[in-house]
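Figure 2 data, in text form.
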Amino acid sequence: MSLSRDTTPPTWPFRPNVRALGGALRDLVLTRIAKHWVTLTVEGAENLDGLTTSGLFIFNHSDDFDVPVLYAAVPTRIRRRLAVAVGANIMDEHPILAFVARFFYAGFAFARVPPFRSSLRYVGELVASGRHVLLAPEGELSENGELGEFKPGIGLLAIKLGVPVIPMRIDGLYGTVPMHAWWPKRHSTVTVHIGAPLTFGRDDKPRDVAIALREAVQSL
Protein backbone atom coordinates (compact mmCIF):
# COMPACT_ATOMS: atom_id res chain seq x y z
CA MET A 1 0.00 0.00 0.00
CA SER A 2 2.37 2.71 -1.17
CA LEU A 3 2.76 4.97 -4.12
CA SER A 4 3.17 3.08 -7.39
CA ARG A 5 6.01 5.41 -8.30
CA ASP A 6 8.40 7.31 -6.05
CA THR A 7 6.83 10.67 -6.91
CA THR A 8 5.65 13.57 -4.81
CA PRO A 9 1.87 13.50 -4.29
CA PRO A 10 0.00 16.60 -5.46
CA THR A 11 -0.44 19.22 -2.77
CA TRP A 12 -3.52 20.94 -4.19
CA PRO A 13 -6.05 18.60 -2.47
CA PHE A 14 -4.90 19.94 0.89
CA ARG A 15 -5.05 23.64 0.13
CA PRO A 16 -7.49 25.29 2.56
CA ASN A 17 -9.74 26.65 -0.20
CA VAL A 18 -9.90 23.25 -1.92
CA ARG A 19 -10.72 21.45 1.31
CA ALA A 20 -13.38 24.01 2.19
CA LEU A 21 -15.07 23.81 -1.22
CA GLY A 22 -14.59 20.08 -1.70
CA GLY A 23 -15.82 19.30 1.80
CA ALA A 24 -18.88 21.51 1.46
CA LEU A 25 -19.88 19.99 -1.89
CA ARG A 26 -19.23 16.50 -0.54
CA ASP A 27 -21.54 17.03 2.43
CA LEU A 28 -24.22 18.80 0.38
CA VAL A 29 -24.24 16.52 -2.65
CA LEU A 30 -22.33 13.23 -2.34
CA THR A 31 -23.31 12.49 1.24
CA ARG A 32 -26.97 13.08 0.39
CA ILE A 33 -26.67 10.69 -2.55
CA ALA A 34 -25.07 8.12 -0.26
CA LYS A 35 -27.85 8.48 2.32
CA HIS A 36 -30.46 8.05 -0.43
CA TRP A 37 -29.10 4.55 -1.04
CA VAL A 38 -28.08 3.73 2.52
CA THR A 39 -30.07 3.83 5.75
CA LEU A 40 -27.21 4.47 8.14
CA THR A 41 -26.88 3.77 11.86
CA VAL A 42 -23.69 4.61 13.76
CA GLU A 43 -22.72 2.79 16.96
CA GLY A 44 -19.81 3.77 19.19
CA ALA A 45 -19.41 7.41 18.09
CA GLU A 46 -18.79 8.27 21.74
CA ASN A 47 -15.45 6.48 21.44
CA LEU A 48 -14.21 9.49 19.47
CA ASP A 49 -15.10 12.04 22.13
CA GLY A 50 -11.65 11.97 23.71
CA LEU A 51 -9.68 11.86 20.47
CA THR A 52 -7.62 15.06 20.46
CA THR A 53 -4.67 13.96 18.33
CA SER A 54 -4.40 12.69 14.77
CA GLY A 55 -5.42 9.07 14.32
CA LEU A 56 -5.44 6.18 11.88
CA PHE A 57 -8.98 5.07 11.06
CA ILE A 58 -9.14 1.49 9.76
CA PHE A 59 -12.10 -0.42 8.32
CA ASN A 60 -13.22 -3.55 6.51
CA HIS A 61 -13.20 -2.85 2.76
CA SER A 62 -16.41 -4.57 1.69
CA ASP A 63 -17.89 -2.28 -0.97
CA ASP A 64 -16.96 0.58 -3.31
CA PHE A 65 -19.37 2.76 -1.29
CA ASP A 66 -17.28 2.39 1.88
CA VAL A 67 -15.66 5.82 1.85
CA PRO A 68 -18.81 7.96 1.36
CA VAL A 69 -20.55 5.97 4.10
CA LEU A 70 -17.64 6.27 6.54
CA TYR A 71 -17.30 10.01 5.95
CA ALA A 72 -21.02 10.34 6.71
CA ALA A 73 -20.60 8.26 9.88
CA VAL A 74 -17.85 10.24 11.63
CA PRO A 75 -18.39 13.59 13.39
CA THR A 76 -17.79 16.81 11.47
CA ARG A 77 -14.65 17.66 13.45
CA ILE A 78 -13.11 14.35 12.34
CA ARG A 79 -14.38 14.54 8.77
CA ARG A 80 -12.81 17.95 8.16
CA ARG A 81 -9.34 16.60 8.92
CA LEU A 82 -9.74 13.17 7.30
CA ALA A 83 -7.71 12.00 4.30
CA VAL A 84 -8.33 8.65 2.62
CA ALA A 85 -5.78 6.24 1.18
CA VAL A 86 -6.81 4.98 -2.28
CA GLY A 87 -5.08 2.20 -4.20
CA ALA A 88 -2.34 3.74 -6.32
CA ASN A 89 -3.28 1.57 -9.30
CA ILE A 90 -6.83 2.94 -9.14
CA MET A 91 -5.58 6.51 -8.99
CA ASP A 92 -3.27 5.85 -11.95
CA GLU A 93 -5.82 4.07 -14.14
CA HIS A 94 -8.94 6.16 -13.44
CA PRO A 95 -8.15 9.90 -13.59
CA ILE A 96 -11.76 11.01 -13.08
CA LEU A 97 -12.11 8.85 -9.98
CA ALA A 98 -8.72 10.11 -8.80
CA PHE A 99 -9.92 13.71 -9.08
CA VAL A 100 -13.14 12.91 -7.19
CA ALA A 101 -11.18 11.18 -4.42
CA ARG A 102 -8.72 14.06 -4.10
CA PHE A 103 -11.19 16.92 -4.36
CA PHE A 104 -14.01 15.59 -2.21
CA TYR A 105 -12.22 13.20 0.16
CA ALA A 106 -8.61 14.46 0.37
CA GLY A 107 -7.61 11.17 -1.25
CA PHE A 108 -4.02 10.16 -1.90
CA ALA A 109 -2.38 7.24 -3.69
CA PHE A 110 -1.42 4.28 -1.52
CA ALA A 111 0.16 1.37 -3.39
CA ARG A 112 -0.85 -2.24 -3.05
CA VAL A 113 2.52 -3.63 -4.19
CA PRO A 114 6.13 -2.77 -3.26
CA PRO A 115 7.85 -0.38 -2.85
CA PHE A 116 5.91 0.84 0.16
CA ARG A 117 8.30 3.32 1.77
CA SER A 118 7.01 6.43 -0.01
CA SER A 119 3.41 5.87 1.05
CA LEU A 120 4.26 4.99 4.61
CA ARG A 121 6.36 8.13 4.84
CA TYR A 122 3.56 10.21 3.32
CA VAL A 123 1.04 8.93 5.86
CA GLY A 124 3.46 10.04 8.55
CA GLU A 125 3.62 13.50 6.98
CA LEU A 126 -0.17 13.77 6.91
CA VAL A 127 -0.44 12.72 10.55
CA ALA A 128 2.31 15.17 11.53
CA SER A 129 0.36 17.95 9.80
CA GLY A 130 -2.66 17.25 12.01
CA ARG A 131 -4.72 15.06 9.69
CA HIS A 132 -6.45 11.79 10.35
CA VAL A 133 -5.90 9.03 7.80
CA LEU A 134 -8.54 6.51 6.71
CA LEU A 135 -7.25 3.27 5.23
CA ALA A 136 -8.21 -0.35 4.61
CA PRO A 137 -5.55 -2.68 6.06
CA GLU A 138 -6.72 -5.57 3.86
CA GLY A 139 -5.24 -3.70 0.90
CA GLU A 140 -8.04 -4.68 -1.49
CA LEU A 141 -11.79 -4.95 -1.81
CA SER A 142 -13.29 -8.11 -0.34
CA GLU A 143 -14.73 -10.42 -3.00
CA ASN A 144 -17.29 -11.98 -0.65
CA GLY A 145 -17.86 -9.40 2.07
CA GLU A 146 -15.76 -11.30 4.61
CA LEU A 147 -12.90 -9.64 6.46
CA GLY A 148 -9.52 -10.52 4.93
CA GLU A 149 -6.08 -10.64 6.48
CA PHE A 150 -4.45 -7.33 7.40
CA LYS A 151 -1.16 -6.33 5.81
CA PRO A 152 1.77 -5.90 8.23
CA GLY A 153 2.11 -2.31 7.01
CA ILE A 154 -0.73 -1.19 9.30
CA GLY A 155 1.18 -2.62 12.24
CA LEU A 156 4.31 -0.77 11.21
CA LEU A 157 2.40 2.49 10.88
CA ALA A 158 0.74 2.09 14.28
CA ILE A 159 4.09 1.45 15.95
CA LYS A 160 6.18 4.05 14.15
CA LEU A 161 3.65 6.88 14.33
CA GLY A 162 2.49 6.15 17.86
CA VAL A 163 -0.94 7.64 17.20
CA PRO A 164 -4.28 6.09 18.17
CA VAL A 165 -5.74 3.55 15.75
CA ILE A 166 -9.52 3.62 15.56
CA PRO A 167 -11.11 0.35 14.38
CA MET A 168 -14.36 0.56 12.44
CA ARG A 169 -16.57 -2.12 10.93
CA ILE A 170 -19.23 -1.66 8.27
CA ASP A 171 -22.10 -4.15 8.32
CA GLY A 172 -24.73 -4.50 5.59
CA LEU A 173 -23.07 -2.52 2.81
CA TYR A 174 -21.61 -5.39 0.75
CA GLY A 175 -23.20 -5.52 -2.70
CA THR A 176 -24.56 -1.97 -2.69
CA VAL A 177 -21.96 -0.86 -5.24
CA PRO A 178 -20.38 -4.10 -6.50
CA MET A 179 -16.83 -4.13 -7.75
CA HIS A 180 -16.44 -2.12 -11.00
CA ALA A 181 -20.04 -0.83 -10.84
CA TRP A 182 -20.52 2.90 -11.47
CA TRP A 183 -23.78 3.29 -9.54
CA PRO A 184 -25.51 1.62 -6.54
CA LYS A 185 -27.42 -1.55 -7.35
CA ARG A 186 -29.64 -1.69 -4.27
CA HIS A 187 -30.68 0.14 -1.13
CA SER A 188 -28.93 -1.10 2.02
CA THR A 189 -29.46 -0.86 5.75
CA VAL A 190 -26.00 -0.27 7.14
CA THR A 191 -24.43 -0.05 10.58
CA VAL A 192 -21.00 1.49 11.14
CA HIS A 193 -19.43 0.34 14.41
CA ILE A 194 -16.70 2.59 15.84
CA GLY A 195 -14.37 1.06 18.40
CA ALA A 196 -12.23 2.58 21.11
CA PRO A 197 -8.85 3.99 19.98
CA LEU A 198 -5.92 1.60 20.39
CA THR A 199 -2.25 2.48 20.84
CA PHE A 200 0.90 0.40 20.52
CA GLY A 201 4.49 0.70 21.72
CA ARG A 202 7.91 0.49 20.11
CA ASP A 203 8.43 -3.01 21.46
CA ASP A 204 5.40 -4.41 19.62
CA LYS A 205 5.89 -6.33 16.39
CA PRO A 206 4.15 -5.17 13.18
CA ARG A 207 2.62 -8.54 12.39
CA ASP A 208 1.31 -8.98 15.93
CA VAL A 209 -0.21 -5.49 15.81
CA ALA A 210 -1.83 -6.23 12.44
CA ILE A 211 -3.39 -9.38 13.89
CA ALA A 212 -4.61 -7.49 16.97
CA LEU A 213 -6.17 -4.77 14.82
CA ARG A 214 -7.93 -7.31 12.64
CA GLU A 215 -9.37 -8.92 15.76
CA ALA A 216 -10.49 -5.49 16.97
CA VAL A 217 -12.37 -4.81 13.73
CA GLN A 218 -13.83 -8.31 13.64
CA SER A 219 -15.11 -8.08 17.22
CA LEU A 220 -17.04 -4.83 16.81
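Caption note: The CA atoms of residues 50 and 197 lie 9 Å apart.
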